Amino acid sequence: MKTPRLAGQRAGIFPALLLCLSALPGPAMAEPRLAMPVDCTLGDTCFIQNYMDRDPGPGAQDFTCAGLSYDTHKGTDFALPTLSEMARGVTVRAAADGVVKGARDGMIDRRYTEAEDARIDGRDCGNGVVLLHADGWETQYCHLKQGSVQVRNGQMVRSGDALGQIGLSGRTQFPHLHISVRRDGAPVDPFTPDGDPGTCRGGDARTLWIDDIAYQPGGVVAAGFSVDVPSYDAIKAGTPNVSPLPGDAPAIVLWGYAFGGRRADVLQLTITGPEGRVFNTRQLIKKDQAQFFRAGGKRLKAPLPVGNYTGTITLIRNKQIVSQRQVTTRVD
Ligand SMILES: [Zn+2]
Description:
- This protein is mostly beta strands.
- It folds into 2 domains: about 30-185, Glucose Permease (Domain IIA) (Distorted Sandwich); about 220-330, Immunoglobulin-like.
- The chain contains 5 helices and 17 strands.
- Strands 1, 2, 4, 5, 6, 7, 9 and 10 form an 8-stranded antiparallel sheet that branches. A 4-stranded antiparallel sheet has the order 14-13-16-17, with no helix packed on it.
- A hairpin with a 2-residue loop joins strand 9 and strand 10.
- Zinc ion (ZN) binds next to loops.
């Protein structure tokens, strides 16, 4: 008697249980789905300099098993090309609905050196926000601009709400948002939440992002014309493209600023004017470089022909174009 009754109960309960289960969030739905946390266009006005370190040992590798990371890096760095974009203001937004668990502002925007350690005093995140989401998930936003943080402890935020702006506070050497994703305190790589450390993500593996974020293995992030070779500090600050070039300029120079350079890459710089090619150079990258710039050009013995000039900067890896950027100027 027991057996049929149990079977009957099962038959009665099971459909209800199924309904219940399908209405509840499954394991995948309990995770936050993350929106783009910065107001910029990857590959154009910003780029990802570092991903989470997936190498369990002393080395560093990103989720594709390439080198866009550094040892023990526990987040993703959305970087701006120069300080001038930072000064103009790029909004950092909540990646998901949540409650503000912590917020800090008031730290100065200054490029990190070891001499800054005492001032920073362990506050490596700089001005930042921690959001608490459902089921023990957290997101943390670091290096925000001084005076830009606009949420306070306990405040509820919606996905996409402004939290502050990208800055240079805390332990950082370039303007960027570092975002960490954690579950129950453990770091999670939003690009490969299911991946085991030390493995490379397959092409069709799922991510936590609502909109797919294409992997860029390196790229040219800024370019311009000038009349002499600019300093690297000037490039990082945001050297503007000179246009028009003065007719009596002593030289015409094209510069390009790039990230994710690998040993044996080539950066090609080409200037084309109204009468054809003016200058071309291919410069070998001799070691891996997180960021670098190159410049090249021509001394002028006679004024340049009047007209429009195009500079093309191309990052080449294994004979394939990784990234290309064009900039124009004119001679009146
Ligand atoms: Zn970072």
